[in-house]
Amino acid sequence: MKYKVKDLSLAEIGRKQIEWAEMHMPTLLEIRKRFEAEKPLKGINIAAVLHVTKETAALVRTLKIGGAEVALAASNPLSTQDDVAASLVNDGISVFAWKGETEEEYYSNIESIVKLNNPQIVMDDGGDLHAYIHEKASELKIFGGTEETTTGVIRLKAMEEQGVLRYPVIAVNNAYTKYLFDNRYGTGQSAIDGILRATNILVAGKIAVVAGYGWVGRGIANRLRGLGARVIVTEVNPIRALEAVMDGFEVMPISEASKIGDIFITATGNINVIRKEHILNMKDGAILANAGHFNVEIDVKGLKEISIGKRNIRPYVDEYILPNGKRIYLLADGRLVNLAAAEGHPSEVMDMSFANQALAVEYIVKNKDKLSKKVYNMPEELDYLVAQIKLKTMGILIDELTEEQREYMKQWKYGT
Hints:
This protein has helices at residues 11-23, 26-38, 54-65, 82-90, 103-117, 128-136, 150-161, 176-199, 215-226, 238-246, 254-257, 276-281, 300-306, 337-340, 347-367, 380-393, 403-410; strands at 45-49, 69-73, 94-96, 121-124, 144-147, 169-171, 207-211, 230-234, 250-251, 263-266, 286-290, 309-314, 317-321, 327-331, 375-377. By secondary structure, the protein is an alpha/beta fold. It folds into 2 domains: 8-178 and 345-393, Rossmann fold; 185-340, Rossmann fold (3-Layer(aba) Sandwich), CATH 3.40.50.720. The chain has an 8-stranded mixed β-sheet, covered by helices on one side. The protein has a 7-stranded parallel β-sheet with strand order 3-2-1-4-5-6-15, sandwiched between helices. β1 (45-49), α3 and β2 form a beta-alpha-beta unit. It is globular. It is found in: Cytoplasm. Its main location: cytoplasm. GO terms for molecular function: adenosylhomocysteinase activity.
């Protein structure tokens, strides 16, 4: 089989969703025009483990138009948009993904795209594809790969430090035009969108606790404040904690915040940030949501162990009854709330993230014999190119340095 999706009859609905996304992704479409003319990826097999959304569809369609053969699996069991998956099959993309995969199906789908595609380039969101190839497909000759998320970059850096990384990887996540916008504005909006779709609660007046003040956490915290929430930040990094304080947020340990919060959102990339002892502290009706890549930040297993009852209240909302009679509401089983309960990031911000992905793949193809087995940041000139194209599509002009200014920046003698 060259695909495995939920229902091919959804393809026409998916086509309209993809058209809607592409209408709002002009940067990627500018790159697509050049790819169509130049075919820089001709003869290249790509295996991609990404969230199968309408925005991802715009990316893989661009790669295919550029000459590549693409096989796609989901990077989260709950993030696939089934209509989009069906439409991509009609476009000749080998898709193995559907919403609601079991853990076994999730890893089986990753295995399927690798065995089907024999990739030369791999694109990942979280690091599971990279890990699979290193552990179970070491015979493949990989030119290089890309990584979309902070979580995945952390895993790849660990592989590099341990000397086991087998091919070069471009950390697309580290591009300025990715993390300053995708992580901050994209997750900031989409995580709250997921919470609102799941619960339909009023945010104004609530005490919202954001665990982690990286770019994702600060995006979420600022948008919660904009909706009228009273926001508390919890952190382990003293510099980020200090920044949160000076940004006007209250900062305290999770052990204290757990006693007063109404909504909790984890955004750390680490494990068991909210644990059993914190959950037992919480108010009746507290809501738990996760915006980190893996479902490990909230101790879901611990929540189940201490609960005496559970029932599903609404789609993606499970009610847990604690021994003290309090009710705790877990969203999307602790998985990425923005993709499980909503549609993920808006197309406008994924426009830049996936423009970076397309250019990174092209860069690997052109430089495959020059790159070492290490994790690279996105080349600065490509990062700037994405910003330049984005501004152009928005109709925004900026200044350029004069020759005098360029010369001034090269010298050291001029003083006051």
